[in-house]
Amino acid sequence: MSVKQALLALLEEGPRYGYQLRAQFEQRTGATWPLNVGQVYTTLTRLERDGLVVGAGADDEGHVVYRITEAGRGEVATWFTTPVSRTQPPRDELAIKLALAVTVPGVDVGLVIQQQRSASMTALQDYTRLKRRAAEGAQPEDLAWSLVLDSLVFSTEAEIRWLDHCESRLRRAQLERPEVLLDEILAEEADQEANR
Question: Transcription regulator PadR C-terminal domain location, by residue (predicted)?
Fold first, then answer.
């Protein structure tokens, strides 16, 4: 996520100080990606250093307000018109966990998949419930939050489909290599016998 470009996009609407930017960002994204206010001010300092924003004085309460520059407007325009790069996939902890689970002896991969599917189904229900609530609002921020929820719903649905696929692949692999399954059963029985 580019905090830099997101803050610049918010500043295009008018000068703001750090807490206002943080609040606006979280309101529009439904606090899906919470921002630390220290991160906001650090980013504003870098944007000022790079000539993308300038200090615009202080408001009546003494907050330092920032205003976007023409260079900053150009940066936002470039951001909005440039596709997000997918050249390097983000690290997916679940994919990494399953890849290791199928290769580390003694891991009950079926249980790992079941537990994740259950958690994903719960998340999907939560997102769907939130989406219904967001659809009731008529503010532009409600539409923004609703789009973020759509993304979360689609991602979670895809994850559940992928888990179903993984489970199916595991079953096929066990059918194709029953000796592996037999070895696992014998090893498990030997462990149980040793523990008696």
Answer: 91-170
